[in-house]
Design the sequence.
C-alpha cells in the first residue's frame, strides 16, 4: 500500500459526519457499520457526529448499545416522522445541520437510497463533500443486471443469469441446478436463496421479489470464494471466504464463527495478482471511487468468475474490507481515516471545478 503522506497524518483533525442506518431493509447492517466507523474515527483523533439517515443525530448511549449488541439487536427506531411521499434520507440531508457543518460525510449506508445513488445525488446538490463512489457508480453497481451486462460486454467472466421473474422450469433449463435467486438490487444476502429444484426456484422467486423488486437468477459456480478490496486506486490483499453454509448467506456474513475468512488468502501469487488486476478493472468499469469490494468465485479449473461489485462494502467488526486492510498493515482507524480524507480531497476538487464553471 502507498504510505500516507506525513502532512495527511499530521493535519488537524477532521469533523466527520458518519451517515448510517436509513430506511432500507439493510438498516441493521448499516447501523452496525456506521457505529464501528464512528468509533474508529474518534480513535484516529477526529471529531465525529453520528447521524441516522432516517432519524437524525444519534444519541451516544444508543451508539454504544448498537456497538455492544451487534446487527439488528439494538436498532434505532425510525423516529423522525415525515410525510408518506418524502424519503426520510432526503429530509435528514435537507434539515440536519451536522451534515453541512462537517468537513466530510462518511457514507456508511447499505441498500436502498443509501447505495443506489440517491443519497449521493442529494449530498452533491447540497454541496456537501462525502466519501465513496458517486451517483453513477452507485446506480450501476446496485443493479446487478446492469453490472453483469457491463462486465460481459468488456470480457469480464461472470456467471450466466436471467433478470426478471421466470418460471422455475425455464430457469432450470437455461441455468441448471442449483441456482441462486436474489433481488436484482439487493445486498447483504437479504432474500437470497440457493434453489435445488424448479419448485424451490418458484418459492425463492416469491421471497426475492417481495415489495415489487426485480428478481435475478444466476448460475451457481462451485469453487473458492475470494474477494478483493480497493482503497484509493490500489488493490488490497485477497481474502478467501469459507462459509459454514454452502452459500455465503446473511448468517455466515454477520454471525461470528459462521465463516472462516483468511487474509491474505492462501492462493498462488499469480492467481492473487490476476484477481487484483481484474478487481481494479471492474472498479474502473463501474466508475467507482475511493473504496470498493469486488467478489469472485474461482472454479475447479482455476477460472475466476466475477459475481458482483460493492460501492459500500460492510464495515462491521466481522466485515471483509477491514480484514483486507489489516492484512495490508492498515488498522481500522487508519482505514477509516484514509477513506475520510479521500472524500475531503474529492470535495475540494469538486468545489474548484464548480468555481471554475461559474467564472
Sequence:
Amino acid at each position: 500500500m502507498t504510505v500516507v503522506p506525513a502532512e495527511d497524518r499530521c493535519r488537524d483533525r477532521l469533523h466527520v459526519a458518519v451517515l448510517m442506518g436509513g430506511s432500507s431493509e439493510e438498516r441493521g447492517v448499516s447501523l452496525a457499520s456506521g457505529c464501528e466507523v464512528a468509533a474508529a474515527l474518534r480513535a484516529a483523533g477526529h471529531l465525529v457526529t453520528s447521524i441516522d439517515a432516517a432519524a437524525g443525530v444519534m444519541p451516544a448511549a444508543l451508539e454504544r448499545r448498537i456497538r455492544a449488541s451487534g446487527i439488528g439487536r439494538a436498532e434505532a427506531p425510525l423516529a423522525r416522522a415525515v410525510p408518506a411521499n418524502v424519503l426520510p434520507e432526503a429530509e435528514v440531508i435537507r434539515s440536519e445541520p451536522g451534515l453541512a457543518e462537517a468537513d466530510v460525510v462518511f457514507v456508511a449506508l447499505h441498500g436502498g437510497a443509501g447505495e443506489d445513488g440517491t443519497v449521493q445525488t442529494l449530498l452533491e446538490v447540497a454541496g456537501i463533500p462525502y466519501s465513496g463512489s458517486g451517483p453513477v457508480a452507485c446506480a450501476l453497481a446496485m443493479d446487478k443486471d446492469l453490472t453483469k451486462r457491463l462486465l460481459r460486454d468488456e470480457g469480464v467472466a461472470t456467471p450466466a443469469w436471467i433478470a426478471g421473474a421466470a418460471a422455475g422450469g425455464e430457469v432450470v433449463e437455461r441455468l441448471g441446478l442449483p441456482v441462486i435467486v436474489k433481488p436484482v438490487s439487493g445486498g447483504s444476502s437479504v432474500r437470497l436463496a440457493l434453489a435445488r429444484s424448479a419448485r424451490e426456484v418458484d418459492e425463492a422467486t416469491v421471497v426475492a421479489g417481495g415489495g415489487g423488486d426485480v428478481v435475478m437468477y444466476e448460475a451457481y459456480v462451485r469453487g473458492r470464494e475470494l474477494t478483493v478490496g480497493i482503497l484509493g486506486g490500489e488493490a488490497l490483499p485477497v481474502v478467501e471466504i469459507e462459509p459454514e453454509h454452502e452459500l455465503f448467506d446473511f448468517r455466515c456474513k454477520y454471525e461470528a464463527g459462521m465463516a472462516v475468512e483468511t487474509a491474505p488468502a492462501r492462493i498462488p501469487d499469480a492467481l492473487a495478482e490476476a484477481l487484483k488486476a481484474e478487481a481494479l478493472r471492474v472498479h474502473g468499469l463501474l466508475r467507482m471511487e475511493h473504496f470498493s469490494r469486488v467478489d469472485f468465485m474461482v472454479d475447479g479449473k482455476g477460472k475466476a468468475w466475477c459475481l458482483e461489485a460493492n460501492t459500500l462494502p460492510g464495515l462491521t467488526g466481522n466485515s471483509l474490507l477491514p480484514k483486507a486492510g489489516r492484512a495490508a498493515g492498515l488498522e481500522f482507524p487508519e482505514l477509516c481515516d484514509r477513506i475520510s480524507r479521500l472524500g475531503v480531497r474529492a470535495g475540494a476538487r469538486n468545489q474548484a471545478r464548480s468555481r471554475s464553471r461559474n467564472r
